[in-house]
Records
---
Amino acid sequence: MFSLKIRWLDLLIGILGAALLLIVFIVSASFPAPHQAQLGASVFPRIIVILLAVIALYIAFTSFRKTSTDSIEIHNASKVALSFILLFAYGLLLKKIGFVILTPIFITLLLVLMKFSRILLNVIAALVTTGAIYVVFRLFLSVPLPEGILGF
Amino acid sequence: MISYLINGFGNLVLSGSILALFIGVFLGIIIGALPGLTATMGIALLIPFTYGMDPAFALSLMVGIFAGGIYGGSISAILLRTPGTPAAGATVLDGYPLAQKGQAGKALAVSTIASALGGLIGALILTFLAPQIAKIAVLFGPPEYVLLGVYGLSMISYVAGKSMSKGIFMGLLGILISTIGIDPISGFPRFTFGQLNLLSGLSLLPVLIGLFAAAQAFEGVEKYNEIQSPQAKITKIGISGKEFLRILPHIVKSAFIGTFVGAVPGTGTDIAAFLSYGEAKRSAKNGNEFGTGVIEGVAAPESGNNACVNGAMIPMFTLGIPGEAATAVMLGGLMLLGLQPGPLLFRDNPQVIYTVFASTITSNLLILVLGLFGARFFAKVLQLPAKLITTLIFVLAIIGSYAMRNNTFDVSVTIIAGFIGFILTKADYPVPPLLLGLILGPLVEANLGRTVIISEGNYSIFFTRPLCWLFWALILYTIISNISKSRKASKQPSQEAHNGGKA
Amino acid sequence: MRRRILGIIALMSMVVTLGAFAQGKFPTKPIKIIVPWDAGGGTDAVARALARSGEKYLGVPVVVENKPGGSGAVGLAEVVQSAPDGYTLAILPVELGFMDKTGVYPFGFKDFTPIMNINTDPAALTVKTGKFKNVAEFVAYAKANPGKLKVGNSGTGLLWHLAAAVFSKEAGISLTYVPFSGAAPAIAALIGNQIDAVSVSGAEVQAQVKAGELTMLACMGDKRLANFPEVPTLMELGYNVNINTFRGIGGPKGLPADRVKILADAFKKMMEESDFVSTLGKMGLGIDYRSTADYKKLADETAATLAPILTELGLLRK
């Protein structure tokens, strides 16, 4: 289990707010000057980021003064992290390798990760799910799915 | 006029267009329920097939897909926390918790009834008042859009959840993110860091699917070994007469909000749904229970977005200007059929127009029938093992965000938004304000820019136009009633308020 | 020994491939046309109408793929990065000629191989009916009230914005430009009297002008619009303004000339199909075939006309 005190997360948000303030002001310094009676490209983001930084620092400050011990907990953190990595790999490789090949592998791995059932059943469930999505999207609605190396 | 409409109904049945309408609604519900496939895409996919069709037939098909698609989005929103279209983003907030309480049947019934009734009211306004509404809609200039956006943003205070400051933070974050991309006024690319995919900013749907669906799936992995209650027990599909009377006023009010939001160009079904939800939460007696799965919270956005479908057709038919993204595509389809949309359509092709009006009215009855009949099948999804549902949500989230623009970048956005949403919700940082900011930020900024140009930098324009006064009154009323309500609430702290799950 | 055999096999397979190449067998697989905008728009309609007869003249299917985002930049970037083999093409917008200079596109016309032009549409100056009767009245009012007239367009730095600026420079008047997110909201604002004129294309205001709601004062092309023969061109009125949007077809830089020719010949025939002609007619889009060379010339000329305007509007950013 992974646990983090909410105070620390709020502090992080405060830092994020300050960082965004800095980034927006630095980046928007190079925006072109307004033409005619325009508002200027930097005005609106700057107003918003000032408000955002103020409220973020307020959150961080009040939360830290309260010395509350509330924390967020992520159970099975390693499994969540693994699923995140799996999902990213799936999403990024999808176009190169293709939906039909990658999806059963992805679903099987996720099901194994969550200890769904015996391996054979996991694979069958993965194949059935993939098939169902393929039929509905590709065959029924002819929406293009990532083809990848197989070409369909 | 009535005789025209009767002719329209006659033509709808005799020409067989009613069959097209049925197919359209049916296809629309499926397209809408699948994440990433929106009503707009559905109509665009259809247009090549309408080539050479009878105009009334083809238009009925499009009307059906549009109405069915906006309704269909609520099904996956309620069952899987995966909004099928941006219009269903607000429906997630109460629809999903309600289904998790074991009342999926009720949630689906409420969304079906509200969609049909809201859509019907919108269709009747379209049929009988289109020219009058269009005249008001064009009075809507940049200053009015700004105030409409500000009014919408004031809803952040309703959907903030436990911590107001965190809600406002998320709202501002949403607005800030919405400034990424080409500036609507100067045309200069902002905060894109050389990334072409950021030129038009982050697309709403991938963010929406990430924050709701992918975040939910991460939670599914987190709690994989907890025994999940059988949410599958499908309660009766339907609601009691008493419950119907509870949601009826919200349906009617939302239908008017939705129709008007649809009728002004530049605002669409997503805004209609969120405004309806916020107004229902403000005015409902049980407003503080919103977000825990109350039927009013499902009825309002669903009525609003389906009314918006019909409202969006008002400027299309009367002025030849689309009221919303899907109607922009319909307009192209109309021209390919050899019809010139706009003021002349009433004069040159009244029979087509009134057949379409008959279609819009009928489409809502079809939603009611198909929706209530289909609900028992849709809800079967929840009988799958929880772990399988988790993987299904993951795959649909990825495929959905990819299918929208055939773009891998959107997939990354969904995954990252999902993970951030998963963590932040745990620390009481609410997701809905971020969405409001993301949806309304561009509306406010672009129109503020236009206001400055047309007023030559004179901000008193916000106080010299009658329609602006109306919005100021609305904003003030909302704020005052919100303050007095929170005062009352603090006097008698209710136990229910902090009961139950998250939004 | 084994290495040598492998080497011979590799050499042989190379010879075979080269042979196929030399025979010029093209195309042998489906050709993809990328539309850098959403499905359902005007550019999409042009591409799909064209693709319908693709198999008839090329022997392989022609598929349309929508890849929207970033004012067309996302879809066009995919074509720039694709192999110049003639299998990945795109509908090229007029903005390719100048949006590299305004800091939006990281590529320009030079990064593409033009094949041919398909369609051109002139800009038009349109006002609310009753406000101005003709261009002379419009110009006179603008001269008396500099900067007071507000002209709507479909987006800053897009062609219709520049068209209005070219006209104002030529007429010696000062206008204020109001950008909208597309032509439709600009037209709605004009109907509602929020602005004084729009400078979008004639096709886009067609419905409202025919209904009498709006009045087209002039068209900015070199000849009158077929649908509005009574509306003069700015050229006739003595202003040297000729601004047209054009859509062409092209592939990535370095497309072999023989393949360009095969494609250009086939696309020319596809453009003559009655289905294509009637589709564009219904959309109010002007068919304008131009050969590879003429297309290139048109693009170069337009870029040259617009370059000084960009500086004037403060849009030159590179």
---
Amino acid sequence: MNIYIQGTGCVSPQATATEGPFPAAVIPWQGARLKNWDPDYKQWIDVKLIRRMGRVIKMGVASAKLSLQEAGIEKPEAIITGTAYGCLDDTGVFLTKMINQQEELLTPTAFIQSTHNTVAGQIALMLGCHGYNNTFVHKGFSFENALLDSIMILREGRTGSILAGAMDELTDHSFKILSRFDLYKKEPVTQDSLLRSNTHGTVAGEGAASFVLGTEKGAHTKAKLSGLTTLYRPAGKAEIMADIEAFLAAHSCNREEISLIITGRNGDVAGDEWYEHVENNLLPEIPVACFKHLCGEYPTASAFAMWMACRILAEQAVPASAMFKGNVKGKQQKILIYNHHKQTHHSLILLSAC
Amino acid sequence: MGSGAWIAGGGVICGIGNNVAECLEAFRRMESGMAQMQHLRSVHRSTFPVAEVKADNKTLAAMAGMPEYISRTALLSRIAAQEAWNSTGLGDISQYRVGFVSANTVGGMDKTEDFFADYLENESNGHLRQVVHHECGAVTELVADAMGIRHHISTISTACSSAANALMYGSRLINNNMVDVVIAGGTDALTRFTLNGFNTLMILDQAACRPFDDTRTGLNLGEGAGYVVLISEALAAELPATHPAWCRLSGYANANDAYHQTASSPDGIGNFLAMQGALEMSGLTPADIDYINLHGTGTQNNDIAEGTAIARLFAPAFPPLSSTKSFTGHTLGASGGIEAVFSAMAVKEGIIYPNANFSKQIKELPFSPVVKFSTGNQLQHVMSNSFGFGGNCSSLVFSKI
């Protein structure tokens, strides 16, 4: 059974929250933190609701609505989300008040919105969707687990359309605390210098991307989701190489058929070695695009990569701002996404043109 | 028909016992786990009873074989997951492709809330080791790494129904031949964050909770972890005669109430759809169900929604039903796992669990819960309900082999 991507939506530090082609211009940034480019949420959400909603909820709901719009459907049969951090803003608000007010005189709104399933629940509520609803919260696998759950359910043949998405927000608190773990660049970097900075650390990002998945190819279909796999704590580069080879073989994909690899390079010299190794030794000659100089690093960033790959396949154009190595030529047939989060959570996603 | 997954064993730690045998003994003796908090530090200590696991972190760390400074959520998880594995006849874990699907709602919040107090005073204060395992997924990985599991690891968080969804996802992983075995369930430790959060919703009872009782006024929070070991039918056939499979996971379904972020709809539409879907997958009718382990938190709203949905689906004949949360408290992300183990054990041993503190039938409902422990009943099919915030509703059906 084939799984198709019928619609996509993305809210990110770039001007992605619209239908149509990949944004031509990169929104510049500097420093170690990329902030979301906020669209006008009134397009999708009631003004009264917007005021109470945490940022990640708005981002998630907007990406979901965009993807449904693009797919031309009003209500999916199931909703599955992935988020590593959940609703950090509301969590921080409740935690701060709880501590500062010595557990007295607290109000419920932030607590209610702090649970990890808030976004999936809100989407169900707004759409009146009584179908299957699940939320995965496993670090750098949160999005991949949501996709896998969707694939397994679609293969059972009783569900026609699933909204699958991933979202993570960065807050002032989380950026400060994550910075203390020495994850981010100390020296100034920009979108142009990050990927070749050759030093320790990366830049923090955030975003939400949603996809409408189904089993029937239609007028709205953007791409085919040909394969997905995850690898936890590979022993070394040899293991990921073997895993990629097995993955391509399992999906009957010859290396020559791959038009483009999208790797999760984030400028961290140690982490990027994995990509460099695979690019040079397993898939030489194949052009490479990157995305974390556009959205920053966060545990569900692979959802941004999948959104970008869908755009490339649907538009048959690779944005110059995303190219890292080599030159694309001919039709974009198959795109392999290889991402890892902190060298621990590795994932592969294979997409094909329709 | 059916999910295709079998239950090879289970493990539980909660407010009424540190393992399954101790929990069953507590039910038999009608001893519930609510008491004044001994381990959680909160200004509400004397106000709200809780069902704590009766051990400090040092003791739990020794039981788990893990460092004392890590989150209590992980310590509880390891203890129950290891018991679950040891209860099976599967032997050496490294022989199998193993998945660990562990649900939780708080992650390492018990440590984060200590860290955050220092951090708020000065942003360079607070020990990083207290916040490094904040994420829900970090708790799962601590346990997976300690047990040598890496074929598939995942964490689910859908509030109070989290662990039931872990069983569904685990079952699908087995059906898709991605792994041979999945340890599936959930864990949650008590934290000030959750206690205060539930307090703002004004749904905590200051006395022992009274699920499915007309006088109910709220829930008691609990903590713990519960896991089943899911295997394929083929692997079940290879189990040694000394450790046969407990039962089958014959059906499951997940539906959304789509009514309110925290409250249940008056007619319990999500609950109804979840139970109906689980029956459909198992190929059963309501009359086939011999016992229901209720979600039964003890709040006005939850119990009437669940009860109304049961009345609609099961009328005119109602199977014995009870809420074990009247003993364990509401263990949130762990509850679906703990109650899955109790339900699987119910099928295996013919146990019907009592509902503590019941005195007066809910006037809107045509049934009341069972109040006495009994064993040796002929139970072919047992249903377990888990309903939560975000409208997330899940039902599981366990059946005799």
